[in-house]
Predict the structure.
Amino acid sequence: MKYRFTLIKRENNLILTISDWQPLNPQNINGELFTTQMIEDFMPKNYFLDNIKESLGNIDNAETEFVWPFAESTCNKIINILNALASPERYGRTSENYIGLIGKTPLVKLNSLADECDATVLVKLENMEPNSVKDRPVLSILEQAVKRGDINDNTETVEASSGNVAFALSAILHSLTNKKPRIFISKMHGKTKIRAVRISGVPVMLTAAAEGTASAKKASIKYAESQENIFQVNQHGNPDNPRAHRLTTGPEIYHQCQVMTGQPPAEFVTGLGSCGTAIGVAMFRDDINADFKVIGVEPEEASLLTGKEFNAHRFSGLAPGFITGNYKAEGHLIDEIVTISWQEGFEVCRRMLIEEGYLTGASTGASVGAALHRAKLPENRGKVIVTIAHDRGDRYLNIDDLYRPPETAEEIDLEN
């Protein structure tokens, strides 16, 4: 079905005409033409008009002319509605492959969880990427490597990962080269995640749990030095990691925040693993001369960046056990680093599911928990805090004390 929307200013009125599509005759336009928009929709006319009544007023049929008292904001509102209706993504995005689905993730407001906060808390749902927040940097790193010739038909790609980079590498590298990477992963990150990496077709090299990702990093470097034609992804030190967030995550957050709230973010709060997300968003901030703060989050028991000793911890993806190359190069762009206990982070994770409906990984509990603390500070009253959901929670259901049913959620066996 094709429909034509014509928007005209005539004296002090704004007139919207809706009709079946037909070629527009300029001689029939009596007034200043603002826009003419052809919209193709699969809905029959009556259903289509019912679908837009709430936004555009009481529309009874396609031949009726409607008049509003003219105001520029009203005109812009209507044009935005028409553009949204005409969008090819109205019924959902389409893509030729995994890569085309990366980015443009939703930003959502926390409600019940932020009841006691004086600031608005928004969450960038990177758990709604095809895999996780790691899709963006992995795509950037691999595309640039292929472009430079660092990856060719005979190259083996290797990386140390806590799991999410491994998933992203498996999908994106295969899309680009039809190959799979070799992954080094610490036993600290749990059997479920390791098994999922293996299921994706990736060879896995396991390293000691006590040192965390640091042991996997050492092993991957040693392996690469013993082989020929190896490409090390090096998420922890590759500048193409923060570059991805500088060019995509930062602009998306800044635009979405202002669309939702009418103001820019006061702070962006994110967990620190490779440090690519925090540094990339900080780079974007400086690119546009914005003044929001970037706040990094580490586990209380493993925060090397605040001068503490590293211990094996329960936030997979955060605090790898060494100071990353990304942080050494550009860590000064991060305004402040805060810590959070695993007990509090896990509780926030459970509340995210019970109260807000989002099943996320443990590192999200750390980032959201820290953002909630920031949203209670007097200096942030009335402002907007943006944080991030790093990945999905289905890979963490085996972690003790993380996703346990509340006492009110009964389980009654009716078999007998």
